[in-house]
Amino acid sequence: MQREETPVDTSITVGHAVLELVQGDITAQPDLDAIVNAANAQLTTGGGVAGAIHRAAGPQLARAGRALAPIRPGEVVVTDAFNLPNRRVLHALGPVYGQDEPSDVLLASCYRRALELAADEELASVGFPAISTGVFGFPLRPAAEVALRTVRDALRQPTSLRLVRFVLFSPDDLRVHAEVLAELERSEP
Ligand code: ADP
């Protein structure tokens, strides 16, 4: 039987860093210095990726968040990672699609600020989930375009970062990100 292969690019080099796409669970990335949480404004646990991160980090994470909340769409704050195997959690509040505008600018700010804060702390590696594409309703493909373009642009500037990993939850999320990355590499080399 012929299997149709989607051309996928799951790892590219940008500047001095590797940008890679994997399917997996963001709470199980022990080799990363920091992971990014798709947070809510109050930095409380909630569902989706935030729920998984808070469960894995333990109740201290919500306590640490309390001192920093509320945050605005596009904003990112840093806490310790507590029981997670990482050093830091970067809490990004993505835009609620159709409500927080301009949604693409606010989503780009999440990725850019997270990378800036990671570099401020001299971190070498950071992992992102697909911010705003769950409960917040941002359509996956345009969200992936914003995310990957913003990270590519940021890694072209001087930075301590050597690895940025997108940890996509489903095979379909990975496939869409891989297609978007390949397209960006073609159209904006
Ligand atoms: P938002 O409120 O920003 O939309 P969600 O947590 O609802 O955030 O979803 C963001 C993305 O994270 C979705 O693509 C969802 O499938 C994904 N996700 C959920 N749990 C995990 C996890 N443990 N690791 C990585 N991604 C996850």
- Total helical segments: 5
Residue stretches low in confidence (pLDDT < 50, at least 5 long) are none
Number of domains: 1
Total strand segments: 7
What is the name of the CATH superfamily? Leucine Aminopeptidase, subunit E, domain 1
How far the N terminus sits from the C terminus, by CA atoms, comes to 35 Å
- The helix content is 25-40%
Structural category is alpha/beta
The level 1 CATH classification is Alpha Beta
Q: Any ligands, ions or cofactors bound here, and which?
A: adenosine-5'-diphosphate
Rg value: 16 Å
Task: Describe the strand arrangement of the main beta sheet, using strand numbers.
Answer: 1-2-7-6-3-5-4
**H/E topology pattern:** EEEHHEEHEHEH
| Percentage beta strand | 15-25%
| Biggest sheet record | 7 strands, mixed
Average pLDDT works out at 95
The CATH level-2 architecture is identified as 3-Layer(aba) Sandwich
Question: If you had to describe this structure to a student in words, what would you say it looks like?
Answer:
With 189 residues, this protein is α/β, with parallel strands linked by helices. It has one domain (10-187): Leucine Aminopeptidase, subunit E, domain 1 (3-Layer(aba) Sandwich). It has helices at 48-57, 60-66, 103-120, 140-155, 171-187; strands at 11-14, 17-23, 34-38, 76-80, 88-92, 125-128, 163-168. Helix 3 (103-120) runs parallel beside helix 4 (140-155) and helix 4 crosses helix 5 (171-187). The radius of gyration is 16 Å and the shape is globular. The N and C termini lie far apart (35 Å). The mean pLDDT is 95. The structure holds adenosine-5'-diphosphate (ADP). Residues 25-27, 38, 48-50, 52, 94, 129-136, 167, 169, 173 line the site of adenosine-5'-diphosphate.
